[in-house]
Amino acid sequence: MPHDPSPDDTLLARIAAGEQGALSQLIARHGRGLRVFATRYLGNAADADDVVQDVFVSVWRHAGRFDPQRARASTWLYKITAHRCIDQRRRQTFRSVVGLEDIEDDLASDAPGAETTMQARQELSLARAGIARLPERQRMALLLKVVADLDVAAIGQVIGASTGSAEQLLVRARRALRDHMTAADDGRERTRS
Hints:
By secondary structure, this protein is mainly α. It folds into two domains: 1-104, RNA polymerase sigma factor, region 2, helix turn helix motif (Rna Polymerase Sigma Factor, Chain: A); 106-193, Arc Repressor Mutant, subunit A (Orthogonal Bundle), CATH 1.10.10. 75% of the residues lie in helices and 0% in strands.
Protein backbone atom coordinates (compact mmCIF):
# COMPACT_ATOMS: atom_id res chain seq x y z
CA MET A 1 0.00 0.00 0.00
CA PRO A 2 1.58 3.32 -1.02
CA HIS A 3 2.39 5.82 1.67
CA ASP A 4 1.14 9.40 1.27
CA PRO A 5 4.08 11.60 2.17
CA SER A 6 3.60 13.96 5.08
CA PRO A 7 4.88 17.54 4.86
CA ASP A 8 7.92 16.44 6.88
CA ASP A 9 8.56 13.51 4.53
CA THR A 10 8.49 15.94 1.61
CA LEU A 11 10.86 18.32 3.39
CA LEU A 12 13.30 15.48 4.09
CA ALA A 13 13.21 14.43 0.44
CA ARG A 14 13.95 18.02 -0.57
CA ILE A 15 16.79 18.18 1.98
CA ALA A 16 18.20 14.94 0.57
CA ALA A 17 18.19 16.68 -2.84
CA GLY A 18 20.29 19.49 -1.35
CA GLU A 19 17.63 22.17 -0.90
CA GLN A 20 18.69 24.42 2.00
CA GLY A 21 15.31 26.15 2.18
CA ALA A 22 13.72 22.82 3.07
CA LEU A 23 16.12 22.46 6.00
CA SER A 24 15.12 25.91 7.23
CA GLN A 25 11.47 24.87 7.06
CA LEU A 26 12.15 21.64 8.97
CA ILE A 27 14.02 23.62 11.63
CA ALA A 28 11.08 26.01 11.91
CA ARG A 29 8.70 23.06 12.33
CA HIS A 30 10.70 21.00 14.84
CA GLY A 31 13.61 23.04 16.19
CA ARG A 32 11.81 24.46 19.21
CA GLY A 33 10.41 21.10 20.33
CA LEU A 34 13.78 19.39 19.93
CA ARG A 35 15.47 22.21 21.85
CA VAL A 36 12.94 22.00 24.72
CA PHE A 37 13.36 18.23 24.87
CA ALA A 38 17.16 18.44 24.89
CA THR A 39 17.18 21.25 27.47
CA ARG A 40 14.94 19.30 29.82
CA TYR A 41 17.00 16.15 29.37
CA LEU A 42 20.41 17.77 29.71
CA GLY A 43 19.41 20.51 32.16
CA ASN A 44 21.40 23.10 30.23
CA ALA A 45 20.16 25.29 27.36
CA ALA A 46 23.62 25.88 25.87
CA ASP A 47 24.32 22.15 25.63
CA ALA A 48 20.84 21.60 24.20
CA ASP A 49 21.47 24.21 21.51
CA ASP A 50 24.69 22.41 20.56
CA VAL A 51 22.85 19.08 20.41
CA VAL A 52 20.03 20.43 18.24
CA GLN A 53 22.48 22.13 15.91
CA ASP A 54 24.32 18.81 15.58
CA VAL A 55 21.00 17.04 14.90
CA PHE A 56 20.18 19.33 12.00
CA VAL A 57 23.71 19.04 10.58
CA SER A 58 23.20 15.28 10.69
CA VAL A 59 19.78 15.63 9.03
CA TRP A 60 21.36 17.73 6.27
CA ARG A 61 24.00 15.07 5.66
CA HIS A 62 21.81 11.98 6.02
CA ALA A 63 18.28 12.98 4.99
CA GLY A 64 18.45 10.40 2.22
CA ARG A 65 18.58 7.65 4.84
CA PHE A 66 15.17 8.54 6.24
CA ASP A 67 12.59 5.85 5.43
CA PRO A 68 9.00 7.06 5.89
CA GLN A 69 7.83 3.43 5.87
CA ARG A 70 9.72 2.74 9.11
CA ALA A 71 8.85 5.81 11.21
CA ARG A 72 7.36 9.27 11.17
CA ALA A 73 9.81 12.08 10.49
CA SER A 74 9.27 13.54 13.97
CA THR A 75 10.07 10.17 15.54
CA TRP A 76 13.26 9.99 13.47
CA LEU A 77 14.26 13.52 14.55
CA TYR A 78 13.63 12.80 18.24
CA LYS A 79 15.54 9.53 17.98
CA ILE A 80 18.59 11.35 16.60
CA THR A 81 18.20 13.99 19.33
CA ALA A 82 17.87 11.37 22.06
CA HIS A 83 21.09 9.68 20.95
CA ARG A 84 22.92 13.02 20.79
CA CYS A 85 21.66 13.86 24.31
CA ILE A 86 22.96 10.55 25.63
CA ASP A 87 26.34 11.21 23.98
CA GLN A 88 26.43 14.73 25.43
CA ARG A 89 25.57 13.43 28.92
CA ARG A 90 28.39 10.87 28.66
CA ARG A 91 30.85 13.60 27.64
CA GLN A 92 29.71 15.77 30.55
CA THR A 93 30.11 12.89 32.97
CA PHE A 94 33.58 12.07 31.66
CA ARG A 95 34.72 15.70 31.81
CA SER A 96 33.33 16.05 35.32
CA VAL A 97 34.99 12.86 36.57
CA VAL A 98 38.40 13.82 35.24
CA GLY A 99 38.02 17.39 36.52
CA LEU A 100 37.97 19.19 33.17
CA GLU A 101 34.93 21.30 34.02
CA ASP A 102 32.41 22.00 36.72
CA ILE A 103 28.88 21.04 35.77
CA GLU A 104 26.39 23.70 36.86
CA ASP A 105 23.02 22.66 38.17
CA ASP A 106 20.65 24.81 36.13
CA LEU A 107 17.70 22.98 37.67
CA ALA A 108 18.21 24.88 40.94
CA SER A 109 18.81 28.25 39.29
CA ASP A 110 15.17 29.32 39.18
CA ALA A 111 15.22 32.14 41.71
CA PRO A 112 11.65 32.94 42.74
CA GLY A 113 10.44 36.39 41.77
CA ALA A 114 7.43 38.05 43.36
CA GLU A 115 5.85 36.31 46.32
CA THR A 116 2.82 35.33 44.24
CA THR A 117 5.00 33.24 41.89
CA MET A 118 7.30 31.75 44.51
CA GLN A 119 5.26 28.61 45.13
CA ALA A 120 4.83 27.92 41.41
CA ARG A 121 8.56 28.33 40.83
CA GLN A 122 9.33 26.05 43.77
CA GLU A 123 7.01 23.40 42.37
CA LEU A 124 8.66 23.71 38.96
CA SER A 125 12.09 23.46 40.52
CA LEU A 126 11.03 20.37 42.49
CA ALA A 127 9.61 18.76 39.35
CA ARG A 128 12.79 19.48 37.39
CA ALA A 129 14.92 18.07 40.19
CA GLY A 130 12.71 14.99 40.31
CA ILE A 131 13.02 14.49 36.56
CA ALA A 132 16.80 14.94 36.76
CA ARG A 133 16.99 12.17 39.38
CA LEU A 134 15.12 9.64 37.27
CA PRO A 135 17.14 6.81 35.73
CA GLU A 136 18.25 7.75 32.22
CA ARG A 137 15.77 5.64 30.24
CA GLN A 138 12.83 6.69 32.44
CA ARG A 139 13.80 10.36 32.07
CA MET A 140 14.13 9.95 28.31
CA ALA A 141 10.72 8.23 28.00
CA LEU A 142 8.96 10.80 30.18
CA LEU A 143 10.42 13.76 28.30
CA LEU A 144 9.57 12.21 24.94
CA LYS A 145 5.98 11.90 26.14
CA VAL A 146 5.65 15.30 27.80
CA VAL A 147 7.81 17.51 25.59
CA ALA A 148 7.61 15.78 22.22
CA ASP A 149 4.06 14.43 22.72
CA LEU A 150 5.07 11.10 21.19
CA ASP A 151 2.84 8.08 21.67
CA VAL A 152 4.17 5.03 23.50
CA ALA A 153 4.98 3.12 20.30
CA ALA A 154 7.02 6.06 18.98
CA ILE A 155 8.80 6.40 22.33
CA GLY A 156 9.70 2.72 22.09
CA GLN A 157 11.12 3.31 18.59
CA VAL A 158 13.17 6.30 19.75
CA ILE A 159 14.73 4.53 22.73
CA GLY A 160 15.01 1.11 21.11
CA ALA A 161 12.49 -0.68 23.32
CA SER A 162 9.23 -2.55 22.84
CA THR A 163 5.98 -0.68 23.30
CA GLY A 164 5.38 -2.58 26.54
CA SER A 165 8.81 -1.68 27.89
CA ALA A 166 8.30 1.97 26.96
CA GLU A 167 4.95 1.95 28.77
CA GLN A 168 6.58 0.46 31.88
CA LEU A 169 9.31 3.10 31.79
CA LEU A 170 6.61 5.79 31.72
CA VAL A 171 4.69 4.19 34.59
CA ARG A 172 7.84 3.96 36.74
CA ALA A 173 8.93 7.49 35.84
CA ARG A 174 5.55 8.97 36.75
CA ARG A 175 5.43 7.03 40.02
CA ALA A 176 8.95 8.11 40.98
CA LEU A 177 8.20 11.74 40.13
CA ARG A 178 4.95 11.66 42.11
CA ASP A 179 6.79 10.11 45.10
CA HIS A 180 9.49 12.77 44.86
CA MET A 181 6.92 15.59 44.85
CA THR A 182 4.99 14.04 47.75
CA ALA A 183 8.16 13.62 49.82
CA ALA A 184 9.13 17.23 49.11
CA ASP A 185 5.68 18.47 50.15
CA ASP A 186 5.87 16.40 53.35
CA GLY A 187 9.31 17.87 54.09
CA ARG A 188 8.03 21.43 53.63
CA GLU A 189 5.07 20.74 55.94
CA ARG A 190 7.44 19.48 58.67
CA THR A 191 9.65 22.57 58.40
CA ARG A 192 6.63 24.89 58.71
CA SER A 193 5.45 23.13 61.89
